[in-house]
Specification:
The protein is mostly helical. It has five helices and no strands. The protein is globular. The N and C termini lie far apart (about 40 Å).
């Protein structure tokens, strides 16, 4: 039995087509970053996918990512340190990649 074909990703690991995303793909991408997804991760991933559906874009920067999470989920979760513990490095970029969304425009 062969493995499912992997979706096409760009050189930074972002899906070329956000519509092919599945939770299994999210787990594979997270595993590449050394992240074991738990309910806290999934809450942010679900938030990002809804944000993308409503705005047709990823949050454009870490600052706006934190602000959007704070407005939607409260100040405890809309905190840069909390988000960095879930998604190390650049939280908006890492979380969007795992959520199968395009790269945020202003993230390094």
């Amino acid at each position: 039995m062969s493995a499912s074909p992997q979706p096409t990703r760009n050189n930074e690991g972002f899906l070329e087509d956000a519509t092919v995303w599945t939770p299994d793909i999210a787990r594979d991408i997270a595993r590449e970053d050394g992240i074991q997804l738990n309910e806290n991760h999934w809450e942010i991933i679900e938030f990002l996918r809804i944000f993308y559906t409503e705005h047709e874009m990823s949050p454009p920067s870490n600052r706006l990512f934190v602000k959007a999470v704070k407005e939607a989920l409260g100040s405890e979760k809309g905190d840069s340190i909390y988000l960095m513990t879930l998604f190390p490095g650049t939280p908006a970029k890492t979380a969007c990649r795992i959520a199968g969304l395009p790269r945020p425009t202003n993230c390094l």
